[in-house]
């Protein structure tokens, strides 16, 4: 099968310590492309270098809401320069995270709003982190007029999922779906339109149940694909084909020509 990991932090030191083996295992499992989002401005150069070295890695540049202490207003200007010069596949990882008390909501919203504006200006999709903040993400996306992106590791309601899909966004799902206790998430995945979601690992975090407590890596995307296939009426082949085609279309990936 040809699979695409739509969200993986391959630049994380937990993965770069044995990166050749990590990439080899992923490729051997049929992972033909990986989308690599940034978390703060200091990570952009490393991601740029890795993606230049490995043609199946595709960069996103952005400012993650959980790293507000690393961001300042000038970074939005710097990000605009990077987007214009480097031509990444998306803006991100950006968004809102309301789970941590010391993260100021207003500051997060200002940084997120700026990145939505840049995504619209450069005609790029956005990769969105929305943790306990899905309603405000929906509100801000609608207000921005931007209509192309991905809400990764989605864990909102069925109604919120369909509102995001109606706005032109896709959702992505990772290791959480492999845990039997994730009843609500599994029920949602079983009923969504097949072309509305992508597969992800979020490695090195959020491993599947098979590797619970261990380092996650993109090769384990197979577990996510297999579990989602079990939950749906379509064949495993169709799930792989459609999610891969959707990722290629969303991020304008060159993998079809390279395959």
Characterization of this structure:
The protein has 259 residues and is α/β, with parallel strands linked by helices. It has eleven helices and eight strands. It has helices at residues 13-16, 19-28, 44-53, 74-86, 105-121, 134-144, 158-166, 183-191, 221-231, 236-251, 255-258, and strands at residues 3-5, 31-36, 57-61, 90-97, 126-131, 149-151, 169-173, 197-199. Strands 1-2-3-4-5-6-7-8 form an eight-stranded parallel β-sheet, sandwiched between helices. Helix 5 (105-121) links the parallel strand 4 and strand 5 (126-131). Helix 4 (74-86) packs parallel to helix 5. The two termini are 12 Å apart. 47% of the residues are buried. The model has no long low-confidence stretch (mean pLDDT 96).
> How many separate helices?
11
Biggest β-sheet strands, sense, barrel = 8 strands, parallel
Q: Give the rounded overall mean pLDDT.
A: 96
CATH architecture: Alpha-Beta Barrel
Q: Report the C-alpha radius of gyration, rounded.
A: 17 Å
Question: Low-confidence runs (pLDDT<50, min 5 residues)?
Answer: none
Overall 3D form = globular
The helicity comes to 40-55%
CATH third-tier fold name: TIM Barrel
> In whole angstroms, how far apart are the ends?
12 Å
Total strands: 8
Q: What's the arrangement of strands in the largest beta sheet?
A: 1-2-3-4-5-6-7-8
Total of domains: 1
């Amino acid at each position: 099968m040809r699979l695409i990991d739509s969200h993986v932090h391959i630049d994380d030191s937990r993965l770069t310590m044995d990166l050749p083996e990590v990439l080899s295992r992923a490729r051997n499992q049929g992972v033909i492309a990986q989308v690599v989002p940034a978390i703060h401005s200091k990570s952009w150069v490393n991601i740029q270098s890795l993606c230049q070295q490995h043609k199946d890695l595709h960069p996103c540049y952005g400012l993650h809401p959980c790293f507000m202490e690393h961001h300042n207003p000038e970074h939005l200007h710097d990000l605009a320069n990077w987007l214009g010069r480097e031509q990444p596949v998306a803006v991100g990882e950006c968004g809102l995270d309301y789970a941590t008390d010391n993260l100021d909501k207003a500051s997060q919203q200002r940084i997120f709003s700026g990145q939505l504006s840049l995504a619209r200006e450069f005609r790029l999709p956005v990769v969105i982190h929305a943790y306990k903040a899905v309603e405000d993400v929906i509100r801000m996306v609608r207000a921005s007029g931007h209509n192309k992106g991905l809400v990764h590791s989605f864990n909102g309601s069925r109604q919120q999922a369909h509102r995001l899909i109606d706005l032109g966004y896709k959702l992505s799902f990772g290791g959480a779906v492999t845990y039997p206790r994730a009843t609500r998430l599994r029920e949602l995945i079983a009923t969504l339109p097949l072309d509305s979601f992508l597969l992800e690992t979020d490695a090195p975090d959020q491993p599947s149940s098979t590797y619970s407590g261990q380092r996650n890596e993109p090769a384990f995307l197979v577990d996510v694909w297999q579990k989602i296939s079990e939950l749906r009426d379509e064949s495993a082949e169709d799930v792989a084909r459609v999610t891969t085609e959707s990722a290629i279309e969303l991020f304008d990936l060159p993998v079809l020509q390279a395959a």
